[in-house]
Amino acid sequence: MISVKTIKDALPPFRNEKVLIKERQGTNDIINEILKTHNLYEADYDQIYGYFDTGDIYSTCRNIWEFLKYNLTYNAESDGEQSVKSPSAILHDGEKIDCKHYSLFSGGVLDAIKRNEGDSWQWFYRFVSYYPGEDVGHVFVVVNDGKEEIWVDPVLTSFDQRKKYYSKIDRKPMSLVRISGIGTAQSAVPNVTVNKEVAWTSFLTTPLVGAACTWIHELGVKGLPCPPPLQSTSPGFPTSKRAPTIWPRIVQGSAQRA
Question: Whole domain around residue 242: which residue ranges?
């Protein structure tokens, strides 16, 4: 079994930074924070997934389960002190560890394997309640290899152990890394030389609608003057009698007033 020290050495150092997310956490708050935290630390898990990946998903899941089960002691957080943590924090000595942290680590490693190796199996977080009328009170990771489920729940006694639940919510984070329109590769941007003063003047004298008008407004918020509403004879477009604005002159990439 891989040692905790080996994994910690491959991760960014523990910084003991904690942020109060919400004073009164509800079920949806905790679910959403787990999903957001998963995305936040994708790059960290990219550094360590190779220590667990065997090329076979069942034995890989067993490696993750055994590492967490035998190295991290379960110590549930109180209802008023729910936290989500980076992998470095999860492995830090003295940290309270419960099902959320087990699941974040398991899901982080599995997602890094899929992201980097392109395996075909699927995985997700499973949030469950055990009694009718009860809120979700437990979370673990489930892998579907195309034939059956594999449960990764270090809270339980055995690997792939199944504890019957009353209701479930299955959720998988949306990757923030892969969103790029069509495919994941982007074309190289050509080197282009732009006359900034001409470009700025041209931009300001071009009819603006929709998003471009919004962009001009945002420039004003950042300290650059906004143009007056455009004169137009088109139906539905307002006209303006506002005094002209003194526009900035672009000098070496910065805005200066003329």
Answer: 196-257
